[in-house]
Write a structure and sequence with these properties.
10% strand
Length: 84
C-alpha cells in the first residue's frame, strides 16, 4: 500500500506534517522529493499526456495567431511607428 505524506527534515529526522497511521516499528521505503522535483515530475507527466499536449499546441497556435494579428495592426497604426 502506498501512502504519500509531507514532512519537514529537522535535526536529522523527518517530521511528518500530518498524522501517519502505521504500526510501530514497521519498515518503510522513504523517497525524498523536494517541491522542485515534484513540479518537474508533474511537467514530465503532462508532456506524456497526449490530450494535454494537443490542448497546449492549440493554445500556443492561438497565441501565435493573435500575436501575428497584433503585429499587423501595430504596423498599420501610426501611434506605433518607431520612426516618429
Amino acid at each position: 500500500m502506498t501512502q504519500v505524506y509531507e514532512a519537514i527534515y529537522e535535526n536529522g529526522v523527518f517530521r511528518p506534517i500530518d498524522k501517519i497511521i502505521l504500526e510501530e516499528g514497521r519498515l518503510v521505503r522513504l523517497v525524498v522529493e523536494s517541491e522542485d522535483d515534484e513540479f518537474a515530475r508533474e511537467m514530465e507527466e503532462a508532456a506524456r499526456d497526449a490530450l494535454f499536449m494537443q490542448d497546449l499546441e492549440e493554445c500556443m497556435s492561438d497565441f501565435a495567431a493573435v500575436d501575428a494579428e497584433t503585429a499587423r495592426l501595430m504596423a498599420q497604426d501610426k501611434e506605433f511607428d518607431a520612426e516618429s
